[in-house]
Amino acid sequence: MNYNNLIISASEAGTILSEVYGLNGEISNLPGEVDFNFRVKIENVEGYILKISRPNEDEGYLDFQQKLLQFIASRNQKIIAPKVILDKNGKAISEITDSYGKERKVRLLTWVTGRIWHTVNPQLEDLRFSLGEQCGILTKSLEGFEHPKAHREFIWDIAQSLWTIKHINLFNKEENDIISFFQSKFENQQSEYTILRKSIVHNDANDYNVIVSKDLLNPKVKAAIDYGDAIRTQIINDVAITTAYGIMNHEDPLNASIDIIKGYHKTFPLLEEELPHLFASIAMRLIITVTRSAINKQKEPDNEYLLISEKPAWDVLRKWILISSDFAHYTFREACDFMPHPNQVKFIDWSKNNGFKFSNLFPSINKETIQPIDLSVESLWLGHEVDFNDLDLFSYKIKTLQTENKNKIIAGGYLEARSVYSTSSYDKIGNYGKESRTVHLGIDFWLPAETPVNSILDGEIILAINDAGDKEYGGLIILKHRTDEFDFYTLYGHLSVESILKHSVGDKIIKDDEIAKLGNHLENGNWVPHFHFQVMLSMLNFEVDFPGVCYHSQKEVWKSICPDPNLLFKSDDLKRRQYISNEELIDFRQEHLGKSLSLQYKTPIKMVRGSYQYLIDQNGKKYLDTVNNVAHVGHENIKIVRAGQKQMSLINTNSRYLHKNINDLAKELIETFPKELNVIHFVNSGSEANELAIRMVKAFTGQKDIIASEMGYHGNSNMCIDISSYKFDSRGGNGAPEYTHIFPLPDSFRGKYIGKDSKDKYVAEVQKQIDVIHNKKRKVGAFIIEPIISCGGQIELPNGFLPSVYKLVREAGGLCISDEVQTGCGRMGKSFWGFQLHNVVPNIVTIGKPLGNGHPIAAVVCTQEVADKFANGMKYFNTFGGNPVSCAIGEAVIKTVKEDGLQKNALVVGEFLKKELLELSKEFLIIGDVRGQGLFLGIEFVDSAMNPLANQANYMVNRIKDFGILMSTDGPDQNVLKIKPPIVFTKKNAVELLFYIRKILNEDFMKSF
Ligand SMILES: Cc1ncc(COP(=O)(O)O)c(C=O)c1O
Predict the structure, then answer these.
(1) Residue nearest atom 13 in ligand 1 by C-alpha distance
(2) Are 509 and 458 in contact (CB under 8 A)?
(3) 713: CA distance to ligand 1 center in Å?
(4) Is there a contact between 49 and 40 (Cβ–Cβ < 8 Å)?
(5) I need a labelling partner for 432 at 20 to 30 A (CA). Which of 356, 630, 816, 992 fits?
(6) Among residues 483, 449, 174, which one has the least CA distance to residue 354?
(7) Residue 685 CA, closest ligand 1 atom number
(8) For residue range 465-478, what is the model confidence (pLDDT) as tens digits?
(9) Ligand 1: which of 849, 853, 857, 860 to mutate, judged by most atoms within 8 Å of the beta carbon?
(10) CA 974-980-983 angle, 5° bins
(11) What's the angle, vertex CA 713, arms to CA 710 and CA 714, rounded to 5?
(12) Does residue 765 have a pLDDT over 90?
């Protein structure tokens, strides 16, 4: 066949449109496998799709499609589907003769506006859910429709997909193995599969046939189009097709399938017996796709449409084969509100009639009560990660607990989210960035090594191995037990390897037989000996081991596969602790805590543990923290924790007694300053530091007038608010008080004056404020500014600005204060303090956040002259300021910065990150400016007219949180992303951050300005 003789040009299509329908419009080509399709745009209407068949197309088949659309239109379902437009003669299908003299059938359908699924980025839960929902509605609205052409041989019908077997030789070995695996699986299920309920279904909700609304923030599926593949088949096939394409381009396709299936089930309830077939059916649809592509590659190498789905289909197949089909089945059941494991209820019922004692399991122990132990992420008993990784210390703690509870067995852990699993074998990259397995599926019993372990039931050994993974986990035994109605398994972990050697797979075990002895610490991943006991209702596809810990995102399914072992023992002591939900915490806050306390994120997070540059929530999800410049040397940095713990256990009192710590910290700090700045007052917060600084100014100059920057923030006390334009010029503020003089934010990117030459103009603005003060017949008290204005949006002061301003202020009799609450202690990289970047020496420096690494300690450093004038006879007493615990902590922070080379790290990693962000700004024009020093950076989002893009910045913060990265925005227009992580942030962290920033910059909303 001459392919060229088939083609209909757009202009010929235009002629046909006008002759057959009397319509004129702008015509363009659309892809299509069977028909030639054209988009018809007509002013003021949504438009049409003109479908011209290949020559001599079977009318019956087209009639099927038209009747089907007319049937849908006649049903009272909430559905958007293309409508049939009749021709001038009132016919749904018209006949024409084309320019080659060939007969064609022509149809016209209404156009559904929106975006095609495959162009939508990202395809998140809500969108996937709406995909399922719409396809379910469609299936519902096709119920009862019949047509002879719905019964036909069709290669795209999953029910008929075994035709692909004869083409298996088109694939290489790896591909062949994948395809054959699913083909056999599908073939083996035929007897139950063929009798599943059937209906006429759309059968082709592929990523080019699904229309999504144009709403970029909350997109929803509007409709499925192209009904050319509709057929009568098993309904589960339509679910499989919708899912197969909807899960493409996701790291974790099984996870992505859940929302689609939930949506489908909501509008078209799926039956329990259909779900075991979904896994293989999804694969078979993809196999049809790749087989068709392989065949067509040979026949029509130029027709790209035929190849379009091949790559993503292979991507899914390669991931799908790694998933246990049983696990997928249980996941689908969970999505459809069935108990994930079909035998869960049976097991619960069986266990009600079968009770066991702990002495059945450990005959030598003879204790029946349990002392619960908390190893959860938020366990205070567990303490610091360094502590629980210290074998001796942990053994000691367990021994102590045992001594305190002589008649009890220490045990617990079922469904506990733990952060003790730290090797990479517990991690994967999921649809939400890095995920770690944290949820414990069995019960741990803390007993001495060599404790004999008995089987509690008759059973058969199905596994007895030395479970050597990344760590050594000792001997592992799994027994299979039979009841009248179902089988289940019990797992015995951390056994002595020697004691399991006597067993072979297939050995029969009798109830109360000793099966092994408990292993030593080496057989317990180098941890304190404990015994792991777990129940499983299925072995899934595990043959040489079985997981004892699962991903939080899969918890509901796993807890059904691995029911609570305490169902067997019925110990009240072991009943799971109740955690306070986040909703309860929020409710209490709203009722009893200050109303102006805000919470971060639409769905607030509860953080329960810190670990250097990471924060960990109660489910063990780890977040990379790029926000927190308070945890300066890392959340819960062990050196700081220890310093505080040690001093706290000796004494904490006020500075009226002599103590070495206050002197030591002062000495550490003074070493970092120019010689002029050598007197220190310790306080408890940045606000208090600035408050004291202003008191010093008043004492020194006798003046009250303060010059500060627009959008500056200096603290929450009365005085500090009075000098913080960020507060008094924003919501709830009343503008600058009489004695505060604000000059414009010295932002040379988007401020009042821009560009390299802006410095003098901003200096002149400060001079103006000095003049204002003078005109009021008063004198300047002080000039206060941060070296990089944080709340202003990480604004770097123009080069040379600070020396000129300091000169003017001093000439006017004022003092110069550098607020280093955010910028100090090595964060700047090039210098220890921010003012040093500008070659100036302030009269007063205020220090806050980083000094205590989270502990409330702050300081005011000043010159001898200022200190002397301040000491005018009135005593300065501060109850907490300078106490031994705070000073021990502060000293540890400064020493850690120095000893661990963290200033250098801030420089190296910060410069790398800044350079890469600048590269990114060349590619993504939304990034107008990248600025800052060391690990104190800002990324400003603007459009081409330099308008701020706050919504995009907010979108970035919320989206990147989904991938486990915390960021924040700031600036007068909230369009600046701030990066100010703990300065232990590594280059690898920076690379990860850049990866996700780039990924999100590519999303539709980020490109929509
Ligand atoms: C620059 C600056 N100064 C002072 C303060 C006040 O510090 P604190 O919250 O410890 O009182 C802050 C707090 O964010 C700040 O950013």
Answers:
(1) 715
(2) yes
(3) 7
(4) yes
(5) 630
(6) 483
(7) 10
(8) 987 666 678 899 99
(9) 849
(10) 175
(11) 125
(12) yes
* Residue nearest ligand 1's atom 4 by CA: 714
Q: Is the CB of 117 inside a 6 Å radius of any atom of ligand 1?
A: no
Tracing tokens 């390897």 back to the chain, one arrives at: 497
| Ligand 1 atom nearest residue 848's Cα | 10
Counting Cα atoms < 13 Å in the Cβ hemisphere of 896 gives 28
Contact 782, 816 (CB under 8 A): yes
DSSP code of residue 370: E
Match 């500014």 to its residue by tokens.
785
Encoding tokens for residue 704?
């009250």
The total number of residues shown for the chain amounts to 1009
Mean pLDDT confidence for 134-156: 96
At 772, which helix (H) or strand (E)?
helix 758-775
Taking residues 133-140, what's their average pLDDT? 97
Report whether 341 contacts 402 (CB < 8 A).
no
- Spell out the residues 6+ positions from residue 558 whose beta carbon is closer than 8 angstroms to its own: 439, 441, 550
Please indicate whether residue 713, judged by its CB atom, sits closer than 6 Å to ligand 1.
Answer: yes
pLDDT digit string, tens, across residues 416-431 = 999 877 666 778 899 9
Residue 726 per-residue DSSP state? H
Helix (H), strand (E), coil (C) string for 882-943: CCHHHHHHHHHHHHHHHHCCHHHHHHHHHHHHHHHHHHHHHHCCCEEEEEEECCEEEEEEEC
Instruction: Return the higher-pLDDT residue of 104 and 2.
Output: 104
CA distances, 789 to each of 260, 380, 466, 585, 839 (Å): 46, 38, 59, 34, 17
pLDDT band with cut points at 50, 70 and 90 for residue 700: very high
Query: Quick one: pLDDT at residue 922?
Result: 98
Copy the structure tokens of residue 967.
Answer: 């960021």
